[in-house]
Amino acid sequence: MAPRAYWKGYLKLSLVSCPIALYPASSSSERVSFNRINKKTGHRLKQQNVDSVTGDPVEKDDIGRGYEFAKGQYIQVEDDELAKIQIESTHTIDIERFVPRQEVDDRYLATPYYLAPTDKVGQEAFAVIRDAIREKKMAALGRIVLTRREHVVMLEAFDKGLLATTLRYDYEVRDQKDYFEDIPEIKLAAEMKELAMHIIDTKADHFDPKAFEDHYEKAIVELLRKKQAGRVVEPIRDAEPESPRVINLMDALRASLKGDAKKPAAASTPARRTSKKKATR
Asked: Which residue range(s) make up the domain with 159?
């Protein structure tokens, strides 16, 4: 069965256009999910909308949307009012410009989609746009409307199709200065950096997403299997060894390079000694 399209429309580059479909490139539906239940009966709970002031249940027809412009005061907005907001890119991704891919800050990347042609007639036009993007090694920027919101979308040649990634707007990305400004400038010894870089070289590899296992998901599945089989679930103890603390950074780098099992323990700071005393009281 062919995947179900999330969005259908047209891809347009100047006077060249073709019908396309957008498909989600990622999914979380395979993860284990839980329902809220009544622990006494085992029955699933139903969500009920309640008026925050009166406490009375609200019927579905009386539920609307509102924007809070002051504390406890809302401007009501109807669905038909939102529907009247017409945006040109509702059914078309119109490529506006091309930029070097490396100039797109990764913080702006939001959600990936696969973009493919929907009929044989448009395949040639699609191939022209895709191959031109690939040959120029550029990323195309356009706009798309998904669930009423307009998004900037970046298009890259990917396999036989295009990878479309929605981008966050500038106001959605936080300034790093708020988080990094208190980090001091430290002049490191050349030997320290050389040791660190050598450690990186010894661990260098190619990216393979299959090499990473979701240990939490695996543990949840195992827990559910045991409970379904009526087996006793034993608590996991000491699953993670205590992180080693380091006296000397240079010693730690050298030990890491040698692959020593034992790492030098850290000297206790006054703060740590104080907290340890408190814990033993």
From this structure: 7-26+85-172
